[in-house]
Amino acid sequence: MDDNVTTRWGGAWRWLLPALLLAGLVGAWQIAASTGAIAEALSLEKYLVPSPAEIASSLWENRSLLAENAWVTLREMVFGILAALAVGIGFAVAMHRWRVVRDASYPLIVASQTIPVVVIAPILTVWFSYGITPKIFIVALISFFPITINTLDGLRAVDPEAVKMMRSLNASRWQGFWRVEAPTALPHLFTGVKIAVVVAPIGAVFAEWAGSNAGLGHLIQSDLAYLEVAREFATVFILSAMALIMMGLTVLAERRVVRWR
Amino acid sequence: MRQDTRIKPETGRTQTVDPPSPPLADTTGGGILLRGVGHSYGDLRTLDSLDLEVKAHGVIGLVGPSGCGKSTLLELICGLREQSAGEVEVEGETAAEGRLARCAYMPQRDLLLPWYSAIDNAALALRNQGMRRQAARDAAAALFDRFGLAGFEAARPAELSGGMRQRVAFLRTLIAGKPVLALDEPFASLDAITRAEMQEWLASALRGDPRTVVLVTHDVEEALYLCDRVAVLSARPARIVAELRAPAPRAADRDAAVTDPEFVAAREEAMRALHQAMRGS
Questions:
Q1: B239 to chain A, minimum CA–CA distance in Å?
Q2: Which of A120, A235, B55, B165 is the most buried (most CB within 10 A)?
Q3: Which CATH fold topology does B4-279 show?
Q4: Which of B105, B156, B158 sits opposite A164 (nearest CB)?
């Protein structure tokens, strides 16, 4: 019965269902917040628990401020992910090509992920000052791991029989890489990028908290200090929207590039 | 006389020749020679003092129990693997790299690359030799017509039937222009009817474009139909326990050929040798 409904409505149902759930949640929040029920339950002043309507109006009123700061954070995220892509793919290929590189660097790459961003961000800010450099560095640091590891796994997923076949068809090592190994690894690389896109905002916000003059993380920090809770929610909304759009673009790019799946 | 379209591997251009014609690849004094070849994976001995000779343009079948080392032997001949004892000579070449340059290896699964169209898969060897994409496609297209694949040039491998995939994989091997073809159970994954069709198809392809062929198979009938000679291997470590001459290799009418009493007798003999080889383990 349920399955029938899902098939009959097809694509529309897949959008409608989460939209309804979201509308229900937002509606419930609106009622709970505007009647003061949440604030009362938490023994808080009512202005500390903004309703969705208040967040929406804050979003509108602060649109130019949010846009300015979103642009700063977006650049940090995009450049950070691009840097992670360049370094990550390079590392994965080198680790795949030379056993000694893999053995030597694998533990270090794993270890690099255990450095808490909150610890390294202030140090980098001291080293590189308040500019965009330490932000790019932090975003790259946390995006680098999923990209490298997934690409490496993709390169290692190559069918050894296919490698033999290519060798017997006069393929040089380089041709084998471009015609068999790289296309095999490509879907895995996209998986890595999707994870990177989701963690990049976290990196950007922490990096901005460590010291910055602008950006959505910077805005969240100052709003916390001044108890501008509605605008804080609005900022988080923008941050999530940015991550979602980047995810959507990655999925679109994947569909265009990996056509054989 | 039937006109026969051939592909010249070095230029990729097709040329029309009258059969009988000089061989496409120069195999004078060539063929395959194995002397006292042994191979082991660590302590596991897979091949034991094997001797085998295949004349240029000869087609030999290797049958034997599963896991007896047939595929290892094939990889050894192709230079994809080094023997631990004895000597392997292909077209006068004993070094693995030299053997690899003279053998085209067709693995058991078709292994068509899903990111390439059927024609780009078939033309892979030409691309690897440095030919431009369009020239390689043109060269392969001529063979697509000849091998009943016309109209499927742009198809993705996933859109092709099992038999067609196998044909494209075989074309890919053939187009490499090597004197020796090493085929590892090429039709094992196909259903019985398609397999029979493909055997007939391969027979006609080899009549038109003869090569030295080593065919590994577990199907005695397939071996006796396609090959001049069939070597029966024992269980591991593999030795040649029997060698049979096929009565009518690659006959145009497969159904008639395989029901001929002489063929049936040869098949029985091969089966007996194979049973003995399996019991001997």
A1: 25
A2: A235
A3: Rossmann fold (3.40.50)
A4: B105
Of A120-124, A133-137, A208-212, B7-11, the poorest mean pLDDT is in B7-11
CATH of the domain at A215: 1.10.3720.10
Residues A162 and A239 grouped into a single domain: yes
Q: Which value does ipTM take for this structure?
A: 0.78
pTM: 0.81
Domain match, A179 and A126 both: yes
* Interface touch B128/A260, C-beta < 8 Å: no
pLDDT digits (tens, 9 = 90+) for B211-248: 899 999 988 999 999 999 999 988 888 888 888 888 88
Helix, strand, or coil (residue A175):
helix
CA-wise closest residue to B190 among B265, B109, B256, B122: B109
Query: How many domains does chain A fold into?
Result: 2
Would the CB atoms of B129 and A170 count as touching at under 8 Å?
A: yes
CB contact under 8 A, A170 and B127: no
Residues A146 and A166 occupy one common structural domain:
yes
The residues spanned by each domain of chain B are 4-279
Task: Check whether residue A171 and residue A59 sit in a common domain.
Answer: yes
Q: Are residues A36 and A159 in the same domain?
A: no
Closest Cβ–Cβ partner in A169, A180, A183 for B104: A169
pLDDT at A69 over 70: yes
Measured N-to-C along each axis, helices A117-128 and A182-209 cross at an angle, to the nearest 10 degrees, of 80
